[in-house]
Amino acid sequence: MNILQAFSAGFRRALSEWKMIMILYVTNLLIAVPLALAFRSSLESGFGQSMTSPNLMQGLDLSLMQDFLNLHRDGIGSIIGQIFWVLLAYMLINTLLAGGILTVVRDKKAKFVASSFWGGCGTYFLRFLRLFLIFGMLLVVLLSILGGVLGGIVTSISDNASSELTEYWVRIAYLVILLLPAMIIIMIADYAKIIVVTHDERSMLKTAWRSTKLVFRYFFRTVGLEVLMVLVPIVLFVIYLWLDLSIGMTSGMTILVMFILQQLFIVSKAWTKVFFFAGELSLYHSLQPFGEQTAVPASGIPNAQTTAI
Amino acid sequence: MRQRTRLFSFLVICLITFTTLAHGQSIFKVPLSPRIANYQISVVLDPSQKTLGGKETLIWRNSSPDRITELQFHLYLNAFKNSRSTFMKESGGTNRGIHMDAAGWGWTDVTSIATVDGEDLLRNSEFIHPDDDNGEDQTVLRIPLTKPLLPGQTIQLMIGFKAKLPRVFARTGYFQNFFMVGQWFPKIGVYEAAGQRYATKGQWNCHQFHANTEFYADYGVYDVDMTVPKEYVLGATGILVSSKDNGDGTKTVTHHAEDIHDFAWTASPNYVEFTQQWRDVTIRVLMQPQRVHQAERYFASAKTALEYFDKHVGKYPYPNLTIVDPAYGASGAGGMEYPTLITAGSLWGAGTWVRFAETVVIHEFGHQYWYGLVGNNEFEEAFLDEGFNQYTETRIVDENYGAKNSMLNLPGLTLGDLESSRMSYTAMPNPKIAPTATFGWLFKQGGYGALTYQKTALFMTTFDRLVGRAVMDTIMKTYFERWKFKHPCWRDFLAVVNEIVPKYHGNKFGKDLNWYFDQVMSGTETCDYELTSIENSEVKFPQGMFDHDGKKILFDSKTDSTKSLKLFDSKVVASRLGEVKLPTSILVHFDNGQEVREPWDGQSRWIEFKYRRPEKISWAKVDPDTIMVIDMNLNNNSKTTEPARTPFWKYTVKFLFWLQNLLQIGAIAG
User: Fold this and answer.
1) How far is CA B323 from CA B236, B354, B512, in A?
2) Which structural domain, as residue segments, surrounds residue B571?
3) Model ipTM value
4) Are B96 and B44 found together in one domain?
5) B558 band by pLDDT with thresholds 50, 70 and 90
6) Residue A119's domain spans which residues?
7) Which of A52, A54, A245 sits opposite B634 (nearest CB)?
8) Is B292 helix (H, G, I), strand (E, B) or coil?
9) Rounded distance, CA B605 to CA B232, Å?
10) In this complex, how many residue pairs, one in chain A and one in chain B, have their CB atoms less than 8 Å apart?
């Protein structure tokens, strides 16, 4: 299977898993809404019955927002501070849900069954958590070293740049050089999860090593598929930005329209999560030696309509 | 004695004029300024060593009634000599956000000072530190005279000096082959006679170079020969007299300038030069090669500023203006003013959606007036140039590019110049940290920038709106015409205000405006007026049995003939939360569209207005015309009984969306 076939298989599979996508979306929404409502409450109490708030409809009036923040900085600061903990909680929840996603998409012909999904979440959570810690630490260490070394080079070039164009290119290159290994590590982590689910692996260090070997053995196919898949959310974001600039939020109706479009975009991001796993899984299956059987999952996780390979 | 003084002055002016004519160039038929400090300088730039070798002839006249027994000179470059200078100690090596390069020291060494008779004055010279106890600061040099200089007498000094330019981080210096040469020569200080500015006795006003101070000097004539590599493009104060190829790979460029108090120049082989004309002023722009497409923006904004000042303040007297676009790594040299030469700055790709280039050009040109033509003491009263200039900048920029989007104009995100000034002031952690009228080096706990620039602009704008634009323009024109080519102090500006305002407003603001400026300029308190509350309650007519003229009368809903007429008791309360007291008004809007404007002298802590009308109050505003831009919080200046909720939903929805995105990005690893 080439990368285009894997891309296409993942794309189609993700499109068919609407129930699962809605679970991901609703989870995301439920976690974000309380903070958003706290933010609204803070805005409303800060502006109160002032007649300046309509000035915010045409655009962000920085002067008025500054006046607001001067008196309510602590309140907003507290909300912003909570974002870190919410983010941490969401990352753990995603680790949990990843097990369910892979359990469902693991088998090409299986359809979504709630018990199967949630069973998979529970079965693989601790293993995925260990993988999260392993690859998380690896990411932090790599970015710190790379960032430090490259940062020094970038600073040295910038300090002696006679034109800002030099600095622009250097900074862009810096970003790309940092993002590329980060993307590869995240991709290796995805394949590690696939290996766990496919072969019921119990040793996460062994799995991490195995997935690393797999990616580097088939480097251009794995990275090629990843780059191709990354283009999809980028294109979706560009479309969203264009809609945002075109429609704006200057009236109640346009706010409602943009809210709907925004939530559709978030749904598409949830779809992207499934799409990535499904595409990577398709490629993984195609890279396995001919005749190798995947392990039967541990009992207790009913896989309706699965087909033993 | 007076006749002798006049004779001396006449002879000096003749000497200067002769010297000027000998150079073959005279700009003004009649001197515009007292021409106290006149320089002829020859300097050679060594671009590889980043050094200057100079010879200076200074003709200085004692314009005071005092016997002068010493001279004091600024050696500004010594501020960058080492970490022990007052400038470096106070700044920590950072100026205007730019950090000094570890290897980029600079200094000035005076190698000789002699009178025209050959008397060596250097041997008894010493560095002094009139502002602090830093014996290691070498930015002020005292030269004792063996023979006192009598009133009206002139002294001619021959000065030899060498200078090492710092790597540019604070206005002056080099970056690779870009040179911005400012404050580079030994510069005599200002001797203030008793009664001049705040001097109670004759004294030198020659401060050390501090992190938060700029410059102060007397007017005069400058003739400067600058020798640079011949491929370098050179720009300087004044007009070009000649450019001579020396045949050794260098050229000598001569500039002449009259009635100025500073001379700066720049040289780089990378400049791309453009020239345009505005009336009789030649504008020359020196651009970096990667930004040549922005030259037209420089010209357009310079012409806008020239036009504005010509109309609202006074005529720009010089025949030329040079605008310098500094090299990228020399951004510390940008945003600076010198007579007839200003430095701006921009970035490749910065379109008109961010008018940084225009704002800086307009601001720095404004300094030709405030500081250049009206020569205030920037050490002691920086607000007289920086603050006044920030005020005029906000007027020009907002009126020409839009009050809400003159500085930043992105979809959904805009910012005007006055708005930006307001934000800088209101966002101060402690806006009461010091009065605006603080000597520059005494802002020891911070606040120099926001209080000198932005707060001054805000209180000037508030004053403008209080007295009216026509009156404000008359004040500024009068101040300019009366004090150009002189050294005014704050007292002098206030005198103009107190002279002009009563002519237009009589006693409306009291016998003088000192009460206003005492609060906003000399004081530290803040201004905050609030529309505190609106109340509407239906008038309930009496019910029950009442005695009237010996009879009992029953009032109930059947007999109440006024039942069809509803009346409301309404009340609006406004408060003064800050300590600054300013006259204002409250605009009360009723739900039938009628409005009432209630004046308030702003003195008491609160005021209330009551009404009994068939209409309810729907909204009210204190300071409805936003005269008090210095108010710390404009959000509390109004109240409505039907607040709009939609804007809150807009930003809540945006917050939700971006939070959701952040969660999904953060969970990529999950």
Assistant:
1) 10, 19, 41
2) 529-648
3) 0.92
4) yes
5) low
6) 3-46+65-287
7) A52
8) helix
9) 65
10) 196
